[in-house]
Amino acid sequence: MARKDFLDIASLSREEVDLLLDQATPFKELFTRSVKKVPALKGKSVLMLFYEPSTRTLSSFEVAAKRLSADVIDLDVPHSSVAKGETVKDTVDTLQAMRADYIVVRHKMSGLPQAIARQTRASVINAGDGAHAHPTQALLDAFTLREVFPDLSGRKVLIAGDILHSRVARSTSSLLLKLGVEVGFLGPGSLIPRSGPEGIRKFTDFDEALRWNPDTVYLLRVQMERQDAQYFPGVQEYHRVYGVTRERLDLIQGEGIYIMHPGPVNRGVELCHEVMDYERSLINQQVENGIAARMAVLYSLKPQTDLEDADPGKI
Ligand code: CP
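A: This is the predicted complex of the input protein with phosphoric acid mono(formamide)ester.
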């Protein structure tokens, strides 16, 4: 893959997706060795620029970059000059002057990683922009599903919850459709977008959605922070109608359905406590696979900073 940046799923070809998924496999195998590092990005620097909170994405990018032997700098945004009013453009210019090779960015504004990518020679990786895209989450989700179902074609994945505000739903559904997976959306009518990709089944009733026979139910986090209106009566009501309750878990277990969730989970809202111990929960596997998938992305990109190595006058 000769891309400079990794910004969304829509622009990836099926061939590029397959290459990335195939590349993640040997990186995951590395985790079982005593030395978990390869020298692929030795001498390169990876900068974390997170304007929104993150546990999984930030830490797994850090681990991924370190396992590729890159130097990692986490720009602690709340304690950086951003707190003094520095603009994103000025911050990126500063990072450019420091010769970062990769910038991993998360921001509440949709489209910001694309704008940064145009501004810098570094490879820019979108770690989540507003409600637009979360492409590395989609990649780790597809990788996790492929471990369970080596041939994804014709498998059914039901994505349940706050589809409207979810960058995960947008990116993961887009990637699964590319891989031939049948996708269904389940949620309150107010949280399911009216437009969107063709071929997605839409459900507002959980029991009806389960009669569609999904192989996997992918639960989304209810994102209170992105809702500017009241989309459902309350969290208890949401749990009763759209959550995996204790009773629904019995049904799901009986049918051998897998459960996924991007994290962080809201216990008692989209799922009951027992889901975390369910034998077909892939939630922890998703976290582990996040490192391998992100290693594959970092490994595949070509920062334009590399071109400077071609200068014969350089030491
Ligand atoms: N799935 C995900 O993006 O989690 P974080 O917000 O913890 O990074």
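The chain has a mean pLDDT of 93. Residues 39 and 123 are 19 Å apart (CA to CA).
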